[in-house]
Amino acid sequence: MGLSTHVLDTMHGCPAAGMTVAFYTTRGAEARLVKRFTLDADGRSPGGPLVDSASLKKGTYRLVFDVAGYFKARGVALPDPSFLGEVSLDFGVADPAQHYHVPLLVSPWSYATYRGS
Known about the structure:
By secondary structure, the protein is mostly beta strands.
């Protein structure tokens, strides 16, 4: 399966369709943008996994979710500056033979993540 992500909008109780996400490979303080995409109607990356199982490598990665942009586009009145602007998740892939799923549960005021299945 490789590497995938999924975002749920806990304020509205629905997938975070339309949220912009950037995906990076990292090495120490250095980050290289792999791709930027907009989540589909189900709150997932369009076209399936971010990285398929054959291409996933052991290493460190970063997902950056544009939380403030998403909620502003939904018409939510946010303070300036917003409490959450972008949520950046740094994570490691130790065993590329396994599936790594990185979900984000988010509102304008909080977020949670975990290694999903």
